[in-house]
Protein backbone atom coordinates (compact mmCIF):
# COMPACT_ATOMS: atom_id res chain seq x y z
CA UNK A 1 0.00 0.00 0.00
CA UNK A 2 1.22 3.56 -0.73
CA UNK A 3 -0.21 6.97 0.11
CA UNK A 4 -2.14 6.86 -3.18
CA UNK A 5 -3.93 3.66 -2.27
CA UNK A 6 -5.23 4.77 1.12
CA UNK A 7 -9.04 5.05 1.07
CA UNK A 8 -10.95 8.36 1.23
CA UNK A 9 -11.42 9.59 4.80
CA UNK A 10 -15.20 9.16 4.77
CA UNK A 11 -14.73 5.46 3.98
CA UNK A 12 -12.11 5.18 6.75
CA UNK A 13 -14.49 6.73 9.28
CA UNK A 14 -17.33 4.44 8.21
CA UNK A 15 -15.20 1.28 8.14
CA UNK A 16 -13.82 1.90 11.63
CA UNK A 17 -17.01 3.28 13.18
CA UNK A 18 -15.16 6.48 14.12
CA UNK A 19 -18.12 8.56 15.21
CA UNK A 20 -16.86 11.90 16.53
CA UNK A 21 -16.84 12.26 20.31
CA UNK A 22 -17.47 15.67 21.80
CA UNK A 23 -15.61 14.74 24.99
CA UNK A 24 -12.43 14.32 22.90
CA UNK A 25 -12.91 17.63 21.08
CA UNK A 26 -13.40 15.74 17.82
CA UNK A 27 -14.24 17.79 14.72
CA UNK A 28 -12.62 15.97 11.84
CA UNK A 29 -11.29 17.33 8.55
CA UNK A 30 -12.26 14.85 5.85
CA UNK A 31 -11.30 16.79 2.72
CA UNK A 32 -7.77 15.76 1.74
CA UNK A 33 -7.34 18.85 -0.47
CA UNK A 34 -7.96 20.98 2.59
CA UNK A 35 -5.61 19.00 4.84
CA UNK A 36 -2.94 19.21 2.11
CA UNK A 37 -3.40 22.98 2.08
CA UNK A 38 -3.03 23.17 5.87
CA UNK A 39 0.09 20.99 5.69
CA UNK A 40 1.58 23.44 3.17
CA UNK A 41 1.14 26.29 5.67
CA UNK A 42 3.73 24.53 7.86
CA UNK A 43 6.45 25.55 5.38
CA UNK A 44 9.12 23.24 4.01
CA UNK A 45 8.76 20.09 6.11
CA UNK A 46 10.95 17.92 3.88
CA UNK A 47 14.01 18.12 6.12
CA UNK A 48 12.00 18.21 9.35
CA UNK A 49 10.43 16.01 11.96
CA UNK A 50 6.83 17.12 12.47
CA UNK A 51 5.01 16.77 15.78
CA UNK A 52 1.26 16.40 15.29
CA UNK A 53 -1.17 16.42 18.21
CA UNK A 54 -4.53 14.68 17.77
CA UNK A 55 -4.22 13.09 14.31
CA UNK A 56 -7.68 11.47 14.63
CA UNK A 57 -8.49 9.69 11.35
CA UNK A 58 -5.27 11.11 9.88
CA UNK A 59 -6.27 13.69 7.25
CA UNK A 60 -3.61 16.19 8.26
CA UNK A 61 -1.15 13.36 8.92
CA UNK A 62 -1.57 12.24 5.32
CA UNK A 63 -1.16 15.84 4.16
CA UNK A 64 2.11 16.21 6.08
CA UNK A 65 3.49 12.92 4.76
CA UNK A 66 2.47 13.81 1.20
CA UNK A 67 4.19 17.19 1.67
CA UNK A 68 7.37 15.19 2.25
CA UNK A 69 7.82 15.41 6.02
CA UNK A 70 10.95 13.46 6.97
CA UNK A 71 9.13 11.96 9.95
CA UNK A 72 5.80 12.59 11.69
CA UNK A 73 5.32 11.90 15.40
CA UNK A 74 1.61 11.86 16.14
CA UNK A 75 0.13 11.79 19.65
CA UNK A 76 -3.49 10.60 19.84
CA UNK A 77 -5.61 10.03 22.93
CA UNK A 78 -8.47 8.11 21.31
CA UNK A 79 -7.44 4.45 20.96
CA UNK A 80 -10.15 3.94 18.30
CA UNK A 81 -7.94 5.91 15.85
CA UNK A 82 -4.89 3.67 16.25
CA UNK A 83 -5.73 1.02 13.60
CA UNK A 84 -6.44 3.77 11.06
CA UNK A 85 -3.13 5.44 11.86
CA UNK A 86 -1.35 2.08 11.62
CA UNK A 87 -2.61 1.78 8.02
CA UNK A 88 -1.15 5.21 7.25
CA UNK A 89 2.16 4.21 8.88
CA UNK A 90 2.23 1.10 6.66
CA UNK A 91 1.67 3.22 3.55
CA UNK A 92 4.60 5.51 4.43
CA UNK A 93 7.22 3.08 5.79
CA UNK A 94 9.45 4.41 8.61
CA UNK A 95 7.97 7.90 8.39
CA UNK A 96 5.12 7.85 10.94
CA UNK A 97 5.29 7.05 14.64
CA UNK A 98 2.09 7.13 16.68
CA UNK A 99 2.04 7.47 20.46
CA UNK A 100 -1.21 6.75 22.27
CA UNK A 101 -1.93 9.10 25.14
CA UNK A 102 -2.62 12.59 26.40
CA UNK A 103 -0.45 15.23 24.70
CA UNK A 104 -0.45 17.21 27.95
CA UNK A 105 1.23 14.30 29.75
CA UNK A 106 3.69 13.05 27.10
CA UNK A 107 7.15 14.54 26.52
CA UNK A 108 7.66 14.11 22.77
CA UNK A 109 11.29 15.25 22.68
CA UNK A 110 12.84 11.79 23.07
CA UNK A 111 11.12 10.81 19.82
CA UNK A 112 12.07 13.85 17.74
CA UNK A 113 15.21 14.91 15.88
CA UNK A 114 15.73 18.61 15.02
CA UNK A 115 14.78 20.55 13.01
CA UNK A 116 11.25 20.16 14.33
CA UNK A 117 7.98 21.75 13.25
CA UNK A 118 4.60 21.36 14.95
CA UNK A 119 1.34 21.07 13.01
CA UNK A 120 -2.06 20.22 14.42
CA UNK A 121 -5.79 20.51 14.17
CA UNK A 122 -5.89 20.69 17.93
CA UNK A 123 -8.58 19.55 20.27
CA UNK A 124 -9.90 22.95 21.36
CA UNK A 125 -10.02 21.95 25.01
CA UNK A 126 -6.22 21.51 25.21
CA UNK A 127 -5.12 23.87 22.42
CA UNK A 128 -4.47 27.02 24.45
CA UNK A 129 -2.72 25.10 27.23
CA UNK A 130 -0.36 23.46 24.71
CA UNK A 131 0.28 26.77 22.95
CA UNK A 132 1.28 28.47 26.22
CA UNK A 133 3.63 25.59 27.02
CA UNK A 134 5.24 25.84 23.56
CA UNK A 135 5.65 29.61 23.94
CA UNK A 136 7.16 29.47 27.45
CA UNK A 137 9.87 26.79 27.48
CA UNK A 138 12.70 27.09 30.03
CA UNK A 139 15.18 28.04 27.29
CA UNK A 140 14.94 30.00 24.05
CA UNK A 141 15.11 29.24 21.12
CA UNK A 142 12.60 26.42 21.70
CA UNK A 143 12.87 22.92 20.25
CA UNK A 144 10.38 23.84 17.49
CA UNK A 145 10.99 26.08 14.48
CA UNK A 146 7.32 26.72 13.80
CA UNK A 147 3.80 25.97 15.05
CA UNK A 148 0.96 25.63 12.55
CA UNK A 149 -2.18 25.25 14.60
CA UNK A 150 -5.95 25.30 14.21
CA UNK A 151 -7.85 27.42 16.74
CA UNK A 152 -11.29 28.84 17.17
CA UNK A 153 -11.24 32.09 15.19
CA UNK A 154 -11.59 34.10 18.41
CA UNK A 155 -8.46 32.51 19.94
CA UNK A 156 -6.54 32.99 16.67
CA UNK A 157 -7.41 36.69 16.80
CA UNK A 158 -6.12 36.92 20.36
CA UNK A 159 -2.77 35.45 19.26
CA UNK A 160 -2.17 37.98 16.45
CA UNK A 161 -3.85 40.99 18.14
CA UNK A 162 -2.20 44.41 18.26
CA UNK A 163 -2.50 47.14 20.94
CA UNK A 164 -5.80 48.98 21.08
CA UNK A 165 -7.95 46.00 20.13
CA UNK A 166 -10.25 44.04 22.42
CA UNK A 167 -8.45 40.81 21.56
CA UNK A 168 -5.05 42.19 22.68
CA UNK A 169 -3.70 40.61 25.86
CA UNK A 170 -1.48 37.97 27.38
CA UNK A 171 -1.68 35.54 24.46
CA UNK A 172 -0.67 38.20 21.88
CA UNK A 173 2.26 39.38 23.98
CA UNK A 174 3.49 35.85 24.69
CA UNK A 175 3.22 34.86 21.04
CA UNK A 176 4.76 38.01 19.59
CA UNK A 177 7.62 38.57 22.05
CA UNK A 178 9.83 35.84 20.60
CA UNK A 179 7.94 34.73 17.48
CA UNK A 180 6.10 36.04 14.48
CA UNK A 181 2.43 35.06 14.40
CA UNK A 182 -0.08 35.35 11.57
CA UNK A 183 -3.43 33.91 10.57
CA UNK A 184 -2.66 31.68 7.59
CA UNK A 185 -6.16 30.36 6.76
CA UNK A 186 -9.77 30.81 7.82
CA UNK A 187 -12.20 27.90 7.90
CA UNK A 188 -15.99 27.94 8.23
CA UNK A 189 -17.73 25.47 10.55
CA UNK A 190 -18.80 23.41 7.51
CA UNK A 191 -15.19 22.40 6.81
CA UNK A 192 -15.40 20.00 9.79
CA UNK A 193 -17.36 16.84 10.54
CA UNK A 194 -19.34 17.45 12.65
CA UNK A 195 -19.33 21.25 12.21
CA UNK A 196 -18.43 23.13 15.40
CA UNK A 197 -20.54 26.14 16.48
CA UNK A 198 -17.80 28.67 15.67
CA UNK A 199 -15.43 29.52 12.81
CA UNK A 200 -11.81 28.40 12.94
CA UNK A 201 -8.46 29.68 11.74
CA UNK A 202 -4.98 28.27 11.21
CA UNK A 203 -2.28 30.30 12.93
CA UNK A 204 1.34 30.04 11.79
CA UNK A 205 3.98 30.96 14.36
CA UNK A 206 7.73 31.08 13.59
CA UNK A 207 10.21 31.18 16.45
CA UNK A 208 12.71 34.07 16.39
CA UNK A 209 16.31 33.32 17.37
CA UNK A 210 16.17 36.06 20.04
CA UNK A 211 13.37 37.92 21.82
CA UNK A 212 12.40 41.19 20.10
CA UNK A 213 13.19 43.12 23.32
CA UNK A 214 15.13 41.91 26.35
CA UNK A 215 13.14 40.92 29.45
CA UNK A 216 13.10 38.21 32.09
CA UNK A 217 10.39 35.75 31.02
CA UNK A 218 8.93 35.18 34.48
CA UNK A 219 8.85 38.90 35.32
CA UNK A 220 7.30 39.78 31.96
CA UNK A 221 4.64 37.09 32.42
CA UNK A 222 3.85 38.41 35.91
CA UNK A 223 3.60 42.03 34.75
CA UNK A 224 1.42 41.17 31.77
CA UNK A 225 -0.87 38.84 33.76
CA UNK A 226 -1.44 41.48 36.43
CA UNK A 227 -1.93 44.31 33.92
CA UNK A 228 -4.61 42.41 31.98
CA UNK A 229 -6.24 40.87 35.04
CA UNK A 230 -7.96 44.22 35.51
CA UNK A 231 -7.73 45.50 31.94
CA UNK A 232 -10.29 48.27 32.43
CA UNK A 233 -8.26 49.85 35.26
CA UNK A 234 -5.48 52.40 34.87
CA UNK A 235 -2.12 50.69 35.19
CA UNK A 236 -1.12 52.54 38.37
CA UNK A 237 -4.11 50.80 40.03
CA UNK A 238 -3.97 47.48 38.17
CA UNK A 239 -0.26 47.02 38.97
CA UNK A 240 -0.47 48.13 42.61
CA UNK A 241 1.59 45.82 44.80
CA UNK A 242 3.69 44.49 41.89
CA UNK A 243 6.71 46.54 42.97
CA UNK A 244 7.35 49.61 45.14
CA UNK A 245 7.02 52.98 43.37
CA UNK A 246 5.10 51.46 40.47
CA UNK A 247 4.20 54.90 39.05
CA UNK A 248 7.90 55.82 38.73
CA UNK A 249 8.64 52.51 37.08
CA UNK A 250 5.80 52.98 34.61
CA UNK A 251 7.12 56.43 33.71
CA UNK A 252 10.68 55.05 33.37
CA UNK A 253 9.30 52.49 30.91
CA UNK A 254 7.65 55.26 28.87
CA UNK A 255 4.12 54.37 30.03
CA UNK A 256 1.69 56.90 31.52
CA UNK A 257 0.40 55.63 34.90
CA UNK A 258 -3.11 56.47 33.67
CA UNK A 259 -2.77 54.21 30.59
CA UNK A 260 -4.68 50.95 30.40
CA UNK A 261 -3.04 47.62 29.59
CA UNK A 262 -4.64 47.31 26.19
CA UNK A 263 -2.82 50.37 24.80
CA UNK A 264 0.66 49.35 26.01
CA UNK A 265 3.00 47.96 23.35
CA UNK A 266 5.16 44.86 23.65
CA UNK A 267 8.26 47.07 23.73
CA UNK A 268 6.82 49.06 26.65
CA UNK A 269 5.84 45.90 28.57
CA UNK A 270 9.40 44.59 28.16
CA UNK A 271 10.81 47.91 29.39
CA UNK A 272 8.45 47.75 32.38
CA UNK A 273 9.53 44.17 33.16
CA UNK A 274 13.15 45.38 33.17
CA UNK A 275 12.44 48.27 35.55
CA UNK A 276 10.46 45.94 37.83
CA UNK A 277 13.27 43.39 37.82
CA UNK A 278 15.83 46.09 38.59
CA UNK A 279 14.35 45.98 42.13
N1 LIG B 1 -6.43 16.03 13.22
C1 LIG B 1 -7.71 15.39 12.99
C2 LIG B 1 -8.42 16.08 11.85
O1 LIG B 1 -7.98 17.17 11.46
O2 LIG B 1 -9.41 15.53 11.34
C3 LIG B 1 -8.57 15.39 14.25
C4 LIG B 1 -8.84 16.75 14.83
S1 LIG B 1 -9.93 16.77 16.23
C5 LIG B 1 -10.30 18.51 16.29
C6 LIG B 1 -8.87 16.62 17.66
C7 LIG B 1 -8.15 15.28 17.86
O3 LIG B 1 -7.36 15.33 19.05
C8 LIG B 1 -9.05 14.09 18.02
O4 LIG B 1 -8.56 13.03 17.23
C9 LIG B 1 -8.97 13.73 19.51
O5 LIG B 1 -9.18 12.36 19.76
C10 LIG B 1 -7.56 14.14 19.83
N2 LIG B 1 -7.33 14.51 21.24
C11 LIG B 1 -8.20 15.08 22.10
N3 LIG B 1 -7.61 15.35 23.29
C12 LIG B 1 -6.32 14.94 23.16
C13 LIG B 1 -5.18 14.97 24.03
N4 LIG B 1 -5.28 15.45 25.25
N5 LIG B 1 -4.02 14.46 23.57
C14 LIG B 1 -3.92 13.97 22.30
N6 LIG B 1 -4.95 13.93 21.44
C15 LIG B 1 -6.14 14.41 21.85
Please tell me about this protein's structure.
- There is one protein chain.
- The protein is α/β, with parallel strands linked by helices.
- Helices cover 36% and strands 17% of the residues.
- The chain has eleven helices and seven strands.
- Helix 4 links the parallel strand 2 and strand 3.
- The radius of gyration is 21 Å and the shape is elongated.
- The structure holds S-adenosylmethionine.
- S-adenosylmethionine binds next to helix 3 and strand 2.
- S-adenosylmethionine (SAM) binds next to helix 3 and strand 2.
What is the CATH homology-level superfamily of the largest domain?
A: Vaccinia Virus protein VP39
Tell me the number of structural domains: 2
Number of helices: 11
**SSE string:** HHEHEHEEHEHHEEHHHH
CATH class of the largest domain: Alpha Beta
Instruction: Give the overall average pLDDT.
Output: 96
Using only CA atoms, what is the Rg? 21 Å
Give the termini distance in whole angstroms: 64 Å
Here the CATH topology of the largest domain equals Rossmann fold
Structural class: alpha/beta
Small molecules in complex: S-adenosylmethionine
Fraction of helical residues = 25-40%
Number of strands: 7
Under the CATH scheme, the architecture of the largest domain is 3-Layer(aba) Sandwich
Global geometry = elongated
Query: Numbering strands along the chain, what is their spatial order in the largest sheet?
Result: 3-2-1-4-5-7-6
Strand content: 15-25%
Unreliable stretches: none
Outline the biggest β-sheet: 7 strands, mixed
Amino acid sequence: MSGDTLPPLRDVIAAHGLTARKSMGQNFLLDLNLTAKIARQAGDVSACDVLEIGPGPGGLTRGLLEAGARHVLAIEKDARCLPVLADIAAAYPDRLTVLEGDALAIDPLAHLTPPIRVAANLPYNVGTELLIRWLTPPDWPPYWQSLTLMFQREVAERIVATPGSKAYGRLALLAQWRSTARIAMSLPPGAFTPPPKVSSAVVHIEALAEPRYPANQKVLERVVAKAFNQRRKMLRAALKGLAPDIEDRLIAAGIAPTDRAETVTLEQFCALARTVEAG
